[in-house]
Amino acid sequence: MRTEIVKAVAAAAGLPEAEIAGQLTDSREPGHGDFALPCFILARAWKQSPPACAAKLAAEVALPAGVARCVASGPYLNFFLDRAAESLRLVGGLLAAGDGVGRGAPRGERIVVEYSSPNIAKPFHVGHLRTTVIGHALARIHRHLGYEVISINHLGDWGTQFGFVWAGCEIWGKPADARIGDLVGLYQRASGLRKDQDAGTVAPGDADKPDVNAMARDYFIRLEAGEPEARAFWEWCLDISLDYFKSMYDRMGVHFDHYTGESFFQDRLAGVESMIRGSGILEESRGALGVDLGPRLGFVRVFAEDGRSLYITRDIAAAEYRTETYDPVRILYVVGAPQQLHFQQLVGVLERMGRPSASRIVHIPYGHVPGISTRGGATDEKVLLNDLLDDAHARAREAYSSQVVKKPQDVDEEALAEAVGLGAIFFDYLSRSNIKDFHFNWDDALNFQGDTGPYIQYALARINSIAAKAAATGLDPAGGFDASLLAGDDTYQLVFQLRRFEGILQKAAAEYEPYLLANYLLELARSFSARYSSLRVLGEEPTVAQARLSLFCAVGNVLRTGLGLLGVPPVERM
Ligand code: ARG
Questions:
Q1: Tens digits of per-residue pLDDT, 129-148?
Q2: Could you give the angle at the alpha carbon of 70 between the alpha carbons of 66 and 73, nearest 5°?
Q3: Where a domain ends, among 52, 81, 110?
Q4: Looking at residue 123, what is its pLDDT?
Q5: Do both 406 and 487 map to the same domain?
Q6: Is the C-beta atom of 117 inside 6 A of ligand 1?
Q7: Mean pLDDT throughout 75-91?
Q8: CB-CB contact of 521 with 508 (8 Å)
Q9: Whose CA is nearest to atom 10 of ligand 1?
Q10: Which residue has the CA at smallest separation from atom 11 of ligand 1?
Q11: pLDDT above 90 for 306
Q12: In this structure, which residue's CA is closest to atom 8 in ligand 1?
């Protein structure tokens, strides 16, 4: 419709279509029509005031079929679609698309999305939740839009932290059947002792303990040299950690195509090293080799004094590997804002090396979430993710039983609590722009009346319940409907909002901002909830009931798909 209007206006105004297309906007609300054209550009061409141009254009434009009328309003010309025709097109299309609403045709383009990337042998705490949630949503949204998405977990699985776990095992014994908590405990205990040793505040009972820092360093040197015992210990840590991470990801419905962490690139450094050295950009500064990126980005150390690789060296290798292996149009890195400089330097070094990977890298920074309190008592970022998810489950159960009044009989409350608990967290984390810092608050996130995931899950369940009851009376949302019955202001408002879905998805992808989708779904659910009791389905005359049911089911398809893209489990009944 938009293209048709653009053509008609361009013809009447004698201006190029592209110029009109850039001006024609979606109206804010259907009372002002479906599309609006600000007439300021015409004023220049026609040498009249914008309101006069709007009036003149209104008289002269030949309205395409499907546009009922156009009305000049000040400097704007508002276009009103034929509501019945538009409702038929849109609602019919959404019903036919099912869960594929808004899905794009394959684009033949790849995008790499790297996210989560926790550091192994350190706790997977709430600090890595935001990257997990944002990255997961971005991966799903892009895939839905037709990109081939490669999701990657760049595990922090190489580094001195393993030395601390090693030292802990040497000092206090290696636990049999160790689990992640044991590794984390040893890591924390050893690094605590190291701090005391550094500060000279070792407790009398620990006075005989060896120098933790030296042990850790010695271990890491052996690991880097590939010494079998050190390597076996590292693999032991890795197995235990990966088991745990994967079970967490499964629980959250998060999936990675590849777990290629830092160690993967550690083994592939030789080629990168010769490439960097061969590029002639390395300089020496205080014993370390690096690249001088000028006053803004500074001198970037690429190799340590002893020649070892650094975090950025492995990132150079990773960027090269991904570009070569997948030939993606973009590589997204969902990593916290504190690493902004790191990624600018990474791009800077790759640019200086003349590598094409430089222009594909997009760092998606996100702000800080100060910490979540759990009933276990911990109130900081060190809260382990499984504790958080257990807590979410328990709280969701309570919220459901205290806040939802009319419950269906045979609901699986365990599954429901899990879906609502996860939904509350995921949605809350995605309901403001990436870069904003915020405090997570359970009561806000779990409020079935609030701006929350559970609120939308509930709206969807309500639609399903209406559909089920209607089906029992012989109505079928796929059975066709009389679209003229959706032309009233109340129903058309929903049609109008449904039309925005596709554009919102594209914008969320283009700006890497899932919150745009989250906010849209909230508005749609609010609109539905405000109307569903006045727009009754059950007990209405069959043609009216059928038209409303079709509209609600179209809303349901958009809510279900949209929630899924955000990683919020859609709840069909509650
Ligand atoms: N493991 C890092 C951390 O927890 C994040 C890794 C980010 N990705 C990268 N390619 N450097 O801070």
A1: 999 999 999 999 999 999 99
A2: 155
A3: 81
A4: 62
A5: yes
A6: yes
A7: 97
A8: no
A9: 315
A10: 315
A11: no
A12: 154
